[in-house]
Amino acid sequence: MLKLLIALSAMLALAAALGDYHQVEHKHIPIVHSELVQSNDGKFRYSYESANGIQVQEEGHVKNLGSKDHEINVAHGSYSYVDPHGVPVSVSYIADENGFQVKGSHIPVPPPLPHELVEAYAKVGSHPEAHHDEPEGYGDI
Questions:
Q1: Phi, psi (5° rounding) for residue 121?
Q2: This prediction's pTM
């Protein structure tokens, strides 16, 4: 009986601890500005701002790549907010036939390639016939 009482106490303590852990405060944050514009030719623009400083804007259109069967949606926009540590975060992006490209104050940017490497790539690219002297079996992996 003592083992059952200990097990039951342990389960109740665990349930109480998990109950406190999963509580999340949900607050209603009003939208203080909102705009949506759409046209019949596929162009659109929207933006909004919330009372806690989140700002979002995007605009786009349908781009024809040569025929009706080769149309894509193109969009570009940005959003910004203040993170929980008080640091402003801003992101801008474009989505088109080249994919999704993003830039942001918190997104790492790779360092530039060394000048010597850029020159070497340019030299190799301008002389494709130079690749015939690869050792046998080189590309067979």
A1: -60, -40
A2: 0.57
